[in-house]
Amino acid sequence: MLTRRSFITNTGATLAQIGIAGALSSTNRKKTLATFDLHCHPRSLATFKNILENHLQGAFIALVADLPLLRRTETGIVPDGKFQPGEAWAEFEAQWNQYQSYFSQTGIIPVSSWKAFSQSRSRGNFAPFLACEGADFLDGSLENLDRAYTMGLRSVQLVHYVPNALGDLQTFAPQHNGLSAFGKSAVQRMNELGMVIDVAHASYDTVKGVVDTSSDPVILSHSILKKPPFSPISARALTEDHARIIAQHGGVIGMWPSGLSNDLDEFADSTLRMIDLVGINHVGIGTDMDANYKPVIKNYDDFYSWSDLLAEKGLQQEEINKLTGGNALRVLKKVLG
After folding, report:
1. What does pTM read for this prediction?
2. Would you say 145 and 138 are in contact if contact means Cβ atoms under 8 Å apart?
3. Which of 90, 178, 245, 252 has the highest CB neighbour count under 10 A?
4. Distance between CA 290 and CA 58 in Å, rounded?
């Protein structure tokens, strides 16, 4: 094995050979590691190119149900306005069609079943599922949930920033005392259809209502544990009880590499804190790619830098494999399989 000293003193030709070997080793590692991003919004061909270059196996690519109604302020994102009847579904369809265009241009084929995902993954392809952040597109009707399922939607995050009819948010005053009656019906219908329920952005009481109702484990696709000092987006962080309730019902929490961490090293430490609290089998990652607040994972090269940091901090490869995708895939197989 080359020492650091011999590496530095070797010839340029040998350095080139080492560089090639290192690149091959990195590529092989990326191909063998289970990788699944629980929450992302790739919004450019450059991001899709980066996904493919880094051999990501799968992701929930999320439409944003309430996007036209959001306004960014110094203290975070706030709702501004409300949909008229039919507008939320029209927005859903418009964003859906935009992603179909991206898929057409990149040759990426989205999947809608565990079997299709497994087959695509075995061929070394990126196999995304489509999801929706916020259930505003339901517009009060579970028929719209069935319509979206038929189109290929396989995960719904019940709430986002604009209050809706399903339940309460972390970032808005309670209106339903947790999960509403309509929200409970939506959860039950998603169980019947075989859709992954995402409780990110939901209040603790809403999450408790969901896990008490759902016959399947759920995901909380992107968040982080609370810790002082608080930032403008600290309302989106989780108390220990909030995190535990996901794990106690067999679910997975996607670590959120947002401005709640100052840098990637701090985010890795936050990952370890979550593992200590809920256990290694209940932690994953939701990058919020292309829509995050001051992200510390800015691309999928950084995704692997995060996994390398976790190894440096003492995690074994089997444990890292669970975090980068293995735990997420366990839940997907249970719900979609």
Report:
1. 0.91
2. yes
3. 252
4. 16
